[in-house]
Amino acid sequence: MLAGLAWRNIWRQRYRTVLSLSSIALAAASTVFLLSLQLGVYGTMKENVLRLIDGFAQVQPPGYSDDPDLRKVIADPAAVMARLNAVAGVTATAPRAETYVILSYGSRSYAAAVIGVDPAHEAKVTTLGSSLTAGHALAAGDGDAVLVGAGLARNLKLKLGDKLTMLGAARDGSVAADLLTVKGIFSTGAAQLDRQLVEMPLARFQSDFAMGHSANVIAVSGHSLGAIQSQLSALQAVARRYGLVLRDWAALEPALNDVIMLDMSVGLLWYVSVIVIVVFIILNTLLMSVLERTREFGMLMAIGMRPSQIGRMVWIELVFLAGIGAVLGIALGAGFTLWLSRHGILFSGADALFKQWHMPSTLYPQLGWVSALAGPLAISLCIAVAGLVPYARVRRLEPVSAMRAV
Amino acid sequence: MTNVVANIVECRGVTKHYRQGAIDVPALRGIDLSIEKGDFASLAGPSGSGKTTLLNIIGGLDRPTQGSVKVDGEELTGLSGEALADLRLTKIGFVFQAYNLIPVLTAEENVEFILQLMGEAPAKRRARAREMLHEVALDGLENRRPARLSGGQQQRVAVARALASRPAIVLADEPTANLDSKTAEDLITLMSHLNQISGVTFLMATHDSRVIARTRRHIVITDGRIASDERRNSAG
Ligand SMILES: Nc1ncnc2c1ncn2[C@@H]1O[C@H](COP(=O)(O)OP(=O)(O)OP(=O)(O)O)[C@@H](O)[C@H]1O
Ligand SMILES: [Mg+2]
């Protein structure tokens, strides 16, 4: 009964109602689009960065991340990988061994990080092989082959086919030395990686550094980062079974996580201001309409409506506005976002910044339940709560003074 | 209402003072008044004499400064705002000079609304609303909103609504003040008729001599006191 009356009341001032609905819908739509864009960008950023080298998660020996020591090993990587591969959502796993070495060519020497990879598995986990600017990716059966970052190649004045000397400490403390042939040069766009990283076959690494069949980490990949994130506990269980630990993406790339968190909090500030503004506009409009109808409320009280019922009616009017506005906003925002997620948004001129995070310059918003509903729901909820102000005001009305109002 | 109460309204020593800033405005200065079941009474008096104030206090819209008011046996003083609203809903019908109706509801819905507030079943309340609109000769106009009804028609809807809940008393404050004389005449005839056929008690504050001429009880109030209270046998 109150709802029916409230419904008719909101259409008394058509123009005003259309205006209120538009402002709610636009605010809601903007949150849908912006949140989708934000999440889309984060998603692309994370996947691109993680696919480059880390993988979506890693299984490591305990303490390895704080102190990456060659001697902390996964004794039987094949067994762990078999278990990891059995977890739903996991598409590939790759064993790796990692250490620091001195690389020399001619009279020049540089420190570098060397990663031993199993080419067959690695290609399914990371994209380093696809950022080659010269030569070929590692392949099964490669012996002394090595992939060198473009920056390091420049520093050492290396070209394809050159033989460089690698010097390091083996797992047993002996000196590890080898002569490796440059098979490819990669350029990831991340200057630091390109200056410091080399990749060699895991088998050669294991024999050079006296590691037997052990590895230092196992990188895990999935259909999507989300698929892996939703299986963290299952992956953790596998790791624990072998006395290992699981590191998720945020642990692997804390800097990226920080950037995203910072950006989210800036975004949050924006959402809060949008919500505050729209709530203020709507509340103001409703208070105006309450004031205009004071005399009518006096009449309603005279004929026996309780002040609390009138208050509720006014509150329901606000909830109707919020609800319709939110639904319109979701439709509008989702439509726009879907269209853009198909066509992409080209950010020309921001290439350098984007490249740093391995981003393409065309971005695709990612519409999901969260991005479609969070903003509009927050807006309607805030309006409903703000509606307690007119409710309280109406409840305090005295019939006689209300009826004397002009 | 099955209460066997001879007096529908009983006011004892009712005073009302309004505060306007520092000034104390006495609107009622000690009213003793009983309205009997079936009365068809007018409340006349000069402007500012306290007619509206008294009507509002009897109707539970306003509270007396002192004194006691009983409506249909129930003491009003001490009731909460919500309880007074419930009392108005079930025991009192109001007809004002203007702005009586809910603008977004049709004539029929306006009448029905009261019954809805009372929790009556849809079929029953619809039938009652139709019946009441028929009583006030508004057949055919049930689905019009107030904006599309004349002043006289709107007042009839208000009367129909006031009677729909079968109240103990109908309080009307200048019900004819906004009507031309023919329409005013029709409205008072209608109310008089309803009083006679259904025995509903009416108390009407009015300046209108045509209304006063048709009432059977004639109360005059001056300066917040009852100046005279006469009964006449015939209602013109
Ligand atoms: N809310 C109020 N605040 C202050 N004074 C009031 C208020 N209501 C009424 N009064 C005063 O109380 C007195 C009685 O007013 P009331 O409205 O009852 O008179 P009335 O007989 O109905 O007059 P009228 O014939 O003009 O309608 C007047 O002096 C009026 O100014
Ligand atoms: Mg008056």
Uncertain regions spanning at least 5 consecutive residues of chain A: none
Number of strands of chain B: 10
Rg of chain B, Å, rounded: 17 Å
**Any idea what the shape of chain B is?**
globular
Largest interface: A-B, 23 and 27 residues
Global Rg of chain A: 31 Å
Number of strands of chain A: 12
Instruction: Please list the strands of the largest sheet of chain B in the order they lie side by side.
Output: 6-7-8-3-9-10
Quote the beta fraction of chain A. Answer: 15-25%
Order of helices and strands of chain B: EEEHEEHEHHHEHEHEE
Q: Bound compounds, please?
A: adenosine-5'-triphosphate, magnesium ion
What is the structural class of chain A? alpha+beta
Can you summarize this structure?
The complex is a heterodimer of chains A (406) and B (236). Chain A contains 17 helices and 12 strands.
Give your account of this protein's structure.
The complex is a heterodimer of chains A (406) and B (236). Chain A is α+β, with helices and mostly antiparallel strands and 406 residues long. Chain A has two domains: 2-49 and 257-403, no CATH class; 62-243, no CATH class. Chain A has helices at 2-10, 14-54, 77-85, 119-122, 150-156, 191-196, 202-208, 225-229, 232-241, 249-252, 254-292, 294-302, 307-343, 351-356, 369-386, 388-395, 399-404, and strands at 57-60, 90-105, 108-117, 132-135, 145-149, 163-169, 175-186, 197-201, 217-222, 245-247, 345-346, 362-363. In chain A, a hairpin with a 5-residue loop joins strand 6 (163-169) and strand 7 (175-186). By secondary structure, chain B is of the alpha/beta class. Chain B has a single domain, classed as P-loop containing nucleotide triphosphate hydrolases (Rossmann fold), CATH 3.40.50. Chain B is built from seven helices and ten strands. Chain B has helices at residues 51-58, 81-91, 107-117, 122-135, 151-164, 181-198, 209-214, and strands at residues 7-20, 23-36, 40-44, 66-71, 74-75, 92-95, 169-173, 201-205, 217-222, 225-231. In chain B, the strands form two sheets. Chain B has a six-stranded mixed beta sheet. In chain B, strands 2-1-4-5 form a four-stranded antiparallel beta sheet, with helices on one face. The mean pLDDT of chain B is 93. The A-B interface holds A 1, 5, 8-9, 11-12, 295-296, 299-309, 398-400, 403 and B 56, 59, 61-62, 81-82, 85-86, 88-90, 92, 94, 96, 99-100, 102-105, 113-114, 116-118, 161, 165.
